[in-house]
Write a structure and sequence with these properties.
This protein is mostly beta strands. It has 1 helix and 38 strands. β17 and β18 (about 215-220) form a beta hairpin. The protein is elongated.
Amino acid sequence: MKNTSIFSKLVTLLLTVCLIFGVCQTAFAADMTNDPYGYTYDDAANGHTMYKYYSYNNKSGSYSATRVFYSKGTSVYIESKNLLVTSTSTGSGSRYNGFGTTGIFYVITNNGELISVDSNNMVNTILASGAMNLNYNYDDLAETVTTTSGTLNLSTLYPTVPAPPTVPTIPNQPGTIKTNNRVEIYANSAGEMVYTAYNGTKVKVSITVSNDGLKILNTTNDVRLSDTLKGVKFMGIDSSYNVYMYETNGTLYRFVFGSWYSAEKIVLDGNFKTMRIDENGFLSTIITDKTTYSIKQLTPSTKWEASYTYAVTKDVYATLYTKGSAKSTTLMLIDGILTLNGKEVDDKVTAFGFISDTKFCYIRNGKAYTAPISDPTDYHRLCSDAVSFKMNDVGLVTKIVLSTGKVIKVA
C-alpha cells in the first residue's frame, strides 16, 4: 500500500466525544483539498491484489471507493462485474496495474502494451509496446509510465487501437495461509475493511472499518476508536501493534496497544499524504508533502498534555485529564452499569464523577461511594440518602447532595 490552554481543552473534548459517542464525521483525506486517491493492498482472504479509487462526496462529507479492480497473477478484473479485463498483465501489484489521477485504470501487459479502462469500462490500447512500469504521485495515483524510450505522462496518451473484448468470469482462488507476524487486510461479506494483526498464529488486534468508510472499531476489544473518517487508506498498525489514524485537523493519532480509550496526538510537519507498509503489512513510514517519517520518529506532542487537572462530565460519561499528562481516564454509565476505561465498576449506578487525579465517586441505591482509580473495586462508603453530586469550576466533585437537601463535603 502506497501510500494550540483553552483551545487545547476544546480539542481534547472534541476528540473525547468522537471516541465515546461517535458524533463526529471521520476525516481521512489525501490532504485538505479533498483530492481523490488510490489504495492498493493484498486481500488475504481471496488471494487477490485490490486496486481502489477513492473520490470525495461533498454531500456525505466523506470518501468512498468509486471504482474497484483486482488482479490474480496475470489476470485483471473489474470487481463489481467480475469482468475479466485481461489475462496478459505483466503481473499483480501497482508496478503494472493501477488507477490514474482521473480514475482511469491502467494495465501493462506482458508484451509491453499499455491498456486503459475508462469510466464506462471500455478497454483501449494506449501504447502498442515499450511500457515497463507505472509511476505514482503522493496520492498513490499513477501519473506517468516508464517506457523503453523514456517516461511519458499518462494525461498526454490517448487510445490508438481498441483492445480485445472482455469476457465475464467469476474467479475463486484462496489466499495463502501465513503463520508469521503480519497484518492481513480483506473485505468481509458486509463490505467492511478488516485489518487483522497477528503475532504468529495469535490475533493481537483486529480493526474493522465500516463499509461507508466513516467508522473504525477495535473488534478485539469491542471499542470504537473513531467515527470521523473520510476513507480507509489512512489507518495502519505498526509492528508493536499500535493503531494509527489521521484526521482532518492535520494530526496523526496513535492508540498505543492496550490503551484504547485515549489517543496520543502526533503533530506532523506538512499535510499528510500517504503511508507505506513493510513486507509483513505493518505500518513503517508516514509521508507528508514536506517530509517522510519512520514510525520510530513519531513522538506525541506535549501540547496535548493538560496544564492542570480537570474533568469533562456529560450525561453518560466523564473524562479526567491529569496535569502534565497526555493520557485521559473515562467513566461511562450505560444502563446503570458504570465502567472505568471500559472495565465494569458497579451496577445500579445513578450518578458518578471524579474527585481528584486519584479518586472517583458514584451513587448506587442512594449510597455514595468513593474508590481509587488505580483499584476501582476497592470502594468505600461515604454516606446514605445521596441524590447527586456538586462539582467545582474544573469539573471535579466536591459535595454530595442528600435527599433532605443537605449538602456535605466530599472527603
